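User: quick one, fold this
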Amino acid sequence: AHDRRMRLREVLLALELGTADEPLQKRAKTEKGEASGLSAKLRAETIYSRGSAELASFRKRIAAESLTRASHRLEEQREHAANLRLLIEARHQRQSRLVAFTSVASQVTGSRPLSAATFAPTNVFGDKKAVTGDFDGVVKVWSVPGCTEEYEFAAHRVRILGMAVHAPSGVLATSSMDGTAAMFDLRKAPAVSESGNGKLLTAQPAVILRGHKARVNRVVFHPLCNVVATSSHDTSWRLWDAERGEQLLLQDGHTGPVFDVAYQRDGALAVSASQDGYGRIWDLRTGKCVEVLKGHSRGVVSADFAANGYQVGTGSEDNTVRIWDLRKRESVYTIPAHSGLVSSVKFHSDSTGPFLVTGSFDQSIKLWAGDTFELVKSLTGHEQKVMACALADDGEMIVSACYDRTLKLWAHEDYLLS
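Assistant:
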């Protein structure tokens, strides 16, 4: 590669100085023509299609509101930079708490492995709850930190692969092997189809999202509005109106199954993670792919944005986590994080004490400093692969779902006392 660069440099210099001989000029013209032809071919293959009025409205709203959120984020970052000592103290305090994280509750959930987990914010039930999904398509709601099952319902007939809760509305979204995503109102669920022991057997979804041609791997709510994104094995990810169940966008671009999709906190960008080995950054205001994250040697299965808005973490089948700086347009950290597939990558959203959580098929969950990405704590206790993990909004608790059928809650060792 070095020799090729040197030859190219000599050719360009000779052409610029006018000292290139005739064969050299001819070769340069040929290569320039081939490059121009390839560029024209690529332009000819680019296809644009008119989006719906609803999609245009969504893009305009995101363009306006994301600018306000980005302005607030940047102002907050400037304030932190002006008070560097306080920022360092806050980060040290956060790391000291992470070091003391341990398992505070554990529960065997049923006869089938767990496949998804999340938290329901306090405004949904009045206090914090954990929510899990399993290989039978059953959703269970658990008390925190007692890990007592409060109720359950059948959301799908087959495995649940992803779940998310929309805090303002209390809606739970689930994605499944059956190729659909479904919306359930958690505030209304306890009144649906109760059995003698008070546990739910079935629940009617408020909305079912149909359109994917293969299993739906993840579902996530947009931070600014009631729009959800889904990623699928059909190599696409899509945007949906969560209230009406209408598809707003079908986004191609990957050549393999799309395992994960996540939003930037400002709401302007999204990242998709695919088995084709690439992550892609998408500008939701224009619909363009603005960056391709190249570096993993195998499929990318998990991704998330940091609170600072310009860093992205990706987890891969190559057992590593990469941190990408969108300003530099490159990978700035490669973390040999695990000895198995990295199934979850989650950033804590607090900019004063950021940290990263990763879950893996090597049966462990690890906590990493959000500025240096040094290992802070390794959480062990699961006996099989960790299928998913999620962070509480306050960063004080982690829930993990494992193939060994166990749900675990992880928090500071004094959490139960407080």
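User: anything notable?
Assistant: Confidence is low (pLDDT under 50) at residues 191-198.
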